[in-house]
Amino acid sequence: MQIGGTSALVAGGASGLGAATARALHAAGASVVIADLNPDKGQALADELGERARFVEANVTDSDQVSAAVDAAAEAEGGLRISVCCAGIGWAQRTASKDGPHDLQLFSNVVQVNLIGTFNVLRLAAAAMNANEPDAEGERGVCVNTASIAAFDGQIGQVAYSASKGGIVGLTLPAARDMASRGIRVVTIAPGLFDTPLLGALPQEARDQLGATMPFPSRLGQPDEYAALVEHVVENQMLNGETIRLDGALRMPPR
Fold first, then answer.
1. Residue 8 half-sphere exposure, CB side, CA atoms within 13 Å?
2. How would you write the chain as a 3-class SS string?
3. What does the longest C-alpha to C-alpha distance in the chain come to?
């Protein structure tokens, strides 16, 4: 699918991987709706991008708010044909420790945002894409989810995060099969260690040490490298129902 002349929704688009994706899709000619909980960063990015960019405040777990963002993208020139969900949270706690069992509400919160929020964006975006006229190759849209290599290599304390990201991996193929007859593709990207605001809170020395654990390149991934893969997924029609690791050959140790 060609990016130029389409409309794209980027959930969690105000910072990190999402902001890089919004910039890349906009630069490629798409109209972009940035959906995020942070109105200051989201509006600042929309203002930076200017024409063909809009911010809509939305919590990915809220159906009404996501529907409003989807509607905004569907109303833009070209109609909603690209949806990318980068929204997510993390939490570190062992299944059980000397302090007792894992907090159940915290586990539920992580799953609610990462897994259910991703599915909420996916289902509503796909429903809107259903109304599109197919392009010359029969395609109506592309939905890109964001998992993590923690779905496969979860570390100590990552039980909630890994479960939520593993769920995203698990829904990718059946969702792609669900939407195949409508010409809507579903693909998931599983990033490794990326230089995002989450890691930005760490001292530079700690970030350098994390980067050194990468086989090659021995550094943290850059958000624009994630965005470049999103662009390729959109443009390569054979990518469907797949989870792609983007991790520099990293396999996470237990801790």
1. 36
2. CCCCCCEEEEECCCCHHHHHHHHHHHHCCCEEEEEECCHHHHHHHHHHHCCCEEEEECCCCCHHHHHHHHHHHHHCCCCEEEEEECCCCCCCECCEECCEECCHHHHHHHHHHHHHHHHHHHHHHHHHHCCCCCCCCCCCEEEEEECCCHHHHCCCCEHHHHHHHHHHHHHHHHHHHHHHHHCEEEEEEEECCECCHHHHCCCHHHHHHHHHCCCCCCCCECHHHHHHHHHHHHHCCCCCCCEEEECCCCCCCCC
3. 60
Catalytic residues: 161
Plot region of 232 (φ>0 → left; ψ -120 to 50 → alpha; else → beta): alpha
Q: Is 222 exposed, middle or buried (0-12, 13-18, 19+ CB in 10 A)?
A: middle
How does pLDDT run across 151-165, given as a tens digit for each residue? 999 999 999 999 999
Tokens of 226: 């994630």
52: left (phi over 0), alpha (psi -120 to 50) or beta: left
Tens of pLDDT, residue by residue over 186-222, are: 999 999 999 887 776 567 777 787 788 889 999 899 9
Location of structure tokens 């990518």? 239
Contact 11, 66 (CB under 8 A): yes
For the record, the structure tokens of 2 come out as: 């060609």
Q: What residues contact 229, with CB distance under 8 A and at least 6 apart?
A: 189, 244, 246
Smallest Cα–Cα separation from 254: which of 170, 159, 160?
159
State the Cα–Cα distance between residues 77 and 40, nearest whole angstrom.
25
Terminus-to-terminus CA distance in the chain, angstroms?
40
